[in-house]
Amino acid sequence: MAHNPFFEATTPRQSRRRRRHLVAVVAFDGVVLGDLSTPCELFGRVRRTDGQSAYDVRVCAPQSKVSSAHVNLAVHWPLTLLRKADTIVIPGVDSAQRSLPEALLAELRRAIRRGARVASICTGAFVLARTGALDGHTATTHWLAAPELARRFPAVTVDPDVLYVDNGSVLTSAGAAAAFDLCLHMIRRDFGAEIAADVARAAVMPLERTGGQAQFIVHERPDVPHATFGPLLVWIEQNLRKDLSLSAIARKAAMSSRTLARRFRAHVGMTPAAWIARARVREAQRLLETTSLSVEAVAGMVGFGSPTRLRERFAALVGVSPRTHRRSFSSTSANHFHLGRDGASSDSRLANEPRPV
Fold first, then answer.
1. 3-state SS record for the chain
2. Domain topology for 5-209
3. Domain residue limits, the chain
4. Band of pLDDT at residue 330, cut at 50, 70 and 90
5. For the segment 71-89, what is each residue's pLDDT rounded down to a tens digit?
6. CATH class of residue range 217-334
């Protein structure tokens, strides 16, 4: 890239700031503006417990002027920013056939080789796939673009049915709205559930949505507007330690066991036992993330009776053990996040994420 003093003008001032987790959002001709703005907005809202910004968010590009469908952008940072970024976000591109600067792909490959975390939003998966980083992995994109992604990149397993896929250091997300879920997931992974929840509230959006990842399906309470079962489900969640056998909840609902089982499945979409197991795991997740209670104590508090039973159900629904989940998402352990000398995240929890299912 030609010498551009405009890029250098802000460098000394920025370099004097306290080192934070550097998020580089990539811009290029044809970038989808909504995908570009979402990570800037969400990562930019994150504050540590001392009130300081947790992320340093910057937009970089192959050139100082970038054109999109609606506006032209003046971009302050060059692609060389990717050489020190901890997290790189690739927004969507307006066409899968659009040619991309080779310099962009080269810098992305270089960042991936050194271990930077790279995430794509929507059709940004086409950009990421061109680096080879998705070969042999599962990835997602907007469902309308998924067949084309699979056709163009046969080494990639494309799953069009999930909100996002986390392969550790390489992540992909579906359509524009899923960018919120992906960014909140990364924030939660970096700094814990409480800080991510603060960001979600500030953005006036739910912290988690169902979308294929088991940990989010478990956390999300099913929407059951039916007048009979709504109150019953609330009562169950408030009484997880009690006897919640079919006969017990049938008595609470003033139905026979057979009628309850039939109507419960029709209105809720699963058996009472399956819903209760999910409710108990949801509460176990909350306790593991926000308290220092032992797994044994958590098992008793949510009504599983034994830690073995908790581990079995937790692994079946979330995909990892309770201890691994705590290491990944505990608010207490998240406070120990730090950056390595090369700028990459040295948080060992990044290798232990609950798997996408």
1. CCCCHHHHCCHHHHHCCCCCEEEEEECCCCECHHHHHHHHHHHHHCECCCCCECEEEEEEECCCEEECCCCEEECCEEHHHHHCCCEEEECCECCCCCCCCHHHHHHHHHHHHCCCEEEECCCHHHHHHCCCCCCCCEECCCCCCHHHHHHHCCCCEECCCCCEEECCCEEEECCCCHHHHHHHHHHHHHHCHHHHHHHHHHCCCCCCCCCCCHHHHHHCCCCCCCCCHHHHHHHHHHCCCCCCCHHHHHHHHCCCHHHHHHHHHHHHCCCHHHHHHHHHHHHHHHHHHHCCCCHHHHHHHHCCCCHHHHHHHHHHHHCCCHHHHHHHHCHHHHCCCCECCCCCECCHHHHHCCCCC
2. Rossmann fold (3.40.50)
3. 5-209, 217-334
4. low
5. 999 999 999 999 999 999 9
6. mainly alpha
